[in-house]
Amino acid sequence: MSSSMGSGMFPGQQPPGSHPVGGPGGPGQSGLLSGAPGNRSQGANTLVDDLEASFEACFASLVSQDYVNGTDQEEIRTGVDQCIQKFLDVARQTECFFLQKRLQLSVQKPEQVIKEDVSELRNELQRKELLVQKHLSKLHHWQQVLEDVSIQHRKPSDLPPPGPLAFLEQASASLPPAPLKQT
After folding, report:
1. Within a domain: residue 21?
2. Predominant location of this chain (predicted)?
3. Residue 11 pLDDT > 50, yes or no?
């Protein structure tokens, strides 16, 4: 993949740890793209390489024999925290790079961004319609089950006579008589 795009996935990217905070383009922006694509050496890492390496370092620090055999918990915690912090820093740089590319795309080709937004909205609408259909089918199923149960438990002789108090009359008929109070 890197052969089709030059010497790395993100040409012109500055090495990790050398990103200034507060360059001309705002915090951290000048450190992401420091030069033209041809100015890079063949051995320079890209943001993706750095992200992968820092992730592997995080994972390795958690399973390392040095940490397993170590007795100083504070030293272990510090090492793991440093690895995680480095990973988070590189992840922020990577996110910033993609946000910059997205901003460039929105300025250069606004119709492309609108097409992507429309496509995302269509996909979301389709997903939600499927979810509604799924819930409707479940609702119909349980309505049918409830109707079947209600028909099985209700016999023709159990039907209440028509009238506003029919339900109360039927319910009170099944109650035992109340005991009388002696005075």
Report:
1. yes
2. nucleus
3. no
**Which tokens is 106 given?**
């929105």
If one counts every other C-beta atom within 10 angstroms of the C-beta of residue 171, the result is 10
Are 137 and 98 in a shared domain? no
Q: How far is CA 113 from CA 10, 94, 101, 103, 108, in A?
A: 21, 20, 12, 10, 10
131 and 71 both lie in a single domain: no
CA distance readout (Å), 168 to 147, 177, 178: 22, 15, 16
Query: Model pTM?
Result: 0.45
Number of domains in the chain: 2
**Both 103 and 130 in a single domain?**
no
pLDDT tens per residue across span 86-110: 999 999 999 999 999 999 998 999 9
Residue 48 structural domain: 2-108
What does the pLDDT look like over 26-70, one tens digit per residue?
444 334 444 334 444 444 579 999 999 999 998 888 787 665 665
Q: Which residue has the higher pLDDT, 140 or 155?
A: 140
**Residue 182 C-alpha from the chain's centroid:** 70
Mean pLDDT of the chain: 74
> Based on the domain organization, do 47 and 117 belong to the same domain?
no
